[in-house]
């Protein structure tokens, strides 16, 4: 009976031990994916920012500039690209919309970001654009990979249309969540004018004829939860200028926008809550269940070996009967 129980335990030990690496290295990459139909909105704001008044072409301080960023999963486009790519793909149609204190548009820049649903690596396909211009992304954007590492990554900057290193700085705690802090600096770079300008009748082509150019620099900061790769908070120290040309009336440069952009408090709270929920799911798939099954398999193996050893132990010998010897008489 012990031997039969030991064999059953041995079978379960082999099953759970084999299931551990399968769950971590086979199931996890296939189950931990960004949903193709995901939709999210993020609102950021810059208090006491500097903004260009296009009527007078002078910069002024305004109480607040609001940036609304939306990412909408395009399932139909993703399915078409997956046929050629041979892997799960996500297509995000994004829009960065900036508005001044009066609610008027300052700029709007759409983009399409195509990437691998698990690794977040860019997938190059027709339609990969920023503000209608084709781009070839290198590096991540918006989201880090699952199981983010303590290292530098290439991060794509939509304004400059280039990828530059974003550096891991240290590990911190943000609103009760362990995060990796990353920082990227884009030095002053000449960038294209937005296709949609804030003033009617002015186009990028008409501005270009004046000889005026647009320049941009930023310090980008992200607090990233490492299991999900999702930023729980972000900031930018953002500056834009117009330089030279007849449009500035002989001036060397004029500030278009300058401000310390931060996530709005209500969006911080909702983002942290969502990341905490998703973090538990990733933790189960990547760590808790694989390690739990491995430990369980080892325990069952030990128990089966113990029962096998007990089953092989010889039975205790029966007590020897005491034989009484009759005395010998002469």
Structure notes:
The protein has 330 residues and is of the alpha+beta class. It is built from four helices and twelve strands; from the N terminus they run αββαβββββββαβββα. It has a twelve-stranded antiparallel β-sheet. Helix 1 runs antiparallel to helix 4. The longest helix is centred in the last third of the chain and has 48 residues.
- Largest sheet features: 12 strands, antiparallel
Got a strand count? 12
Number of contiguous helices = 4
Mean pLDDT: 88
**Gross geometry:** elongated
In helices, the fraction of residues equals 25-40%
Q: Secondary-structure blueprint of this entry?
A:
Blueprint: H1 2-31, E1 39-53, E2 58-73, H2 75-85, E3 89-99, E4 105-116, E5 129-130, E6 133-134, E7 153-157, E8 162-174, E9 177-191, H3 204-209, E10 213-225, E11 230-243, E12 253-263, H4 265-312
Antiparallel strand pairs: 1-2, 1-12, 2-3, 3-4, 4-5, 5-6, 7-8, 8-9, 9-10, 10-11, 11-12
Helix pairs in contact: 1-4
Keywords for this entry:
single chain; 330 residues; alpha+beta; twelve-stranded antiparallel beta sheet; 12 strands; 29% helix; 39% strand
Summarize the structure.
The chain is of the alpha+beta class and 330 residues long.
């Amino acid at each position: 009976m012990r031997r039969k129980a030991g064999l059953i335990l041995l079978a379960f030990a082999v099953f759970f031990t084999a299931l551990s690496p399968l769950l971590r290295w086979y199931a996890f990459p296939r189950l931990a994916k960004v949903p193709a139909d995901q939709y999210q909105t993020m609102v950021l704001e810059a208090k006491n920012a500097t903004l260009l008044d296009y009527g007078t072409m002078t910069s002024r301080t305004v109480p607040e500039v609001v940036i609304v960023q939306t990412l909408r999963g395009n399932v139909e486009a993703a399915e078409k690209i997956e046929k050629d790519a041979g892997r799960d793909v996500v297509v995000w149609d994004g829009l960065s919309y900036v508005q001044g204190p009066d609610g008027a548009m300052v700029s709007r820049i759409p983009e399409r970001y195509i990437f691998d649903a698990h690794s977040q690596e860019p997938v190059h396909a027709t339609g990969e654009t920023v503000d209608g211009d084709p781009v070839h992304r290198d590096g991540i954007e918006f989201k880090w990979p699952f199981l983010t590492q303590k290292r530098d990554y290439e991060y794509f900057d939509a304004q400059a249309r280039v990828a530059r290193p974003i550096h891991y700085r240290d590990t911190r705690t943000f609103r009760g969540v362990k995060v990796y802090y990353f920082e990227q600096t884009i030095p002053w770079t000449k960038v294209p004018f937005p296709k949609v300008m804030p003033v009617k009748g002015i186009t990028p082509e008409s501005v270009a004829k004046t000889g005026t150019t647009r320049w941009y620099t930023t310090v980008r900061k992200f607090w990233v939860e490492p299991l999900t790769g999702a930023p729980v908070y972000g900031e930018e120290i953002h500056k834009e200028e117009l330089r030279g040309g007849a449009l500035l009336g002989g001036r060397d440069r004029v500030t278009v926008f300058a401000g310390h952009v931060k996530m709005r408090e209500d969006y911080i709270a909702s983002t942290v809550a969502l990341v905490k929920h998703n973090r538990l799911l990733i933790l189960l798939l990547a760590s808790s269940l694989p390690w739990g099954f491995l430990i369980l398999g080892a325990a069952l193996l030990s128990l089966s070996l113990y029962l096998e050893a007990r089953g092989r132990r010889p039975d205790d010998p029966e007590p020897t009967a005491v034989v009484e010897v009759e005395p010998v008489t002469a």
